């Protein structure tokens, strides 16, 4: 993930080479020019000929100017293990996904301003952008198999439809494949871990004569229904109050991050997990704390420093604030 870190550092302006990006870029340009001059001039080896082995050996023994600049201590971003203080300001309010960047705005001018900041930062950091694979000024963007729009985040409708139309698997391996297909979109499925745990407990012998698959089949149908009715997840708004709904039963945790839009609570993120063996006998209140910690860990970058309201939903009981 070195490439990911390089782009993140460029976007946030956290670190820079000694002397600044401009000085480092100038050294790189000079090194590239020197290498180009050397490669364009004839040598004795080129005139008299040489074997491929001799050429490879000479190349490895004689580092080029660009490699010398990159490996020079002045090109290091760190001094004594600490990052240099950067004069750059953050050019983007979030991380990239490896080399994929998606952003939007309330107005067209805001989008242009953000794009200008990004391109300027990439130019400073010598990061190239492929304009043939880029999209600009679109109402909806397909990003990592998600449809991103002004309204929020929506799962790929075609993939969800295919999952919702699957028949119940005939083997345990088929059940695991079904859960694996849903796992990527688990953020759209409330109580995914609760229903998924019942399917995960299915054994191979349950598919044979005398096996009981009634519970697994009910969970399978419930998940397919939730997939078909998967909601649009609203974009997180740090200016709005945070509301958290917690749920825990004998075998799983489930939590929902919500925010109010136009007087109605809308989900921002669903998350959950199966309880570990040592957590099964925890008190219900302790399980709810685990559910809250799970959400805080999953959504730390959004929730850090904010206050919120938590609602606990006990199985068969009324909500508790």
TrEMBL record:
Residues 215-304 form the Reverse transcriptase/retrotransposon-derived protein RNase H-like domain. Gene3D superfamilies: 3.30.70.270. SUPFAM superfamilies: DNA/RNA polymerases. InterPro entries: DNA/RNA_pol_sf, Rev_trsase/Diguanyl_cyclase, RT_RNaseH_2, Viral_Replic_Matur_Polypro. It comes from the Eukaryota. This is Unnamed protein product. It comes from Phytophthora fragariaefolia.
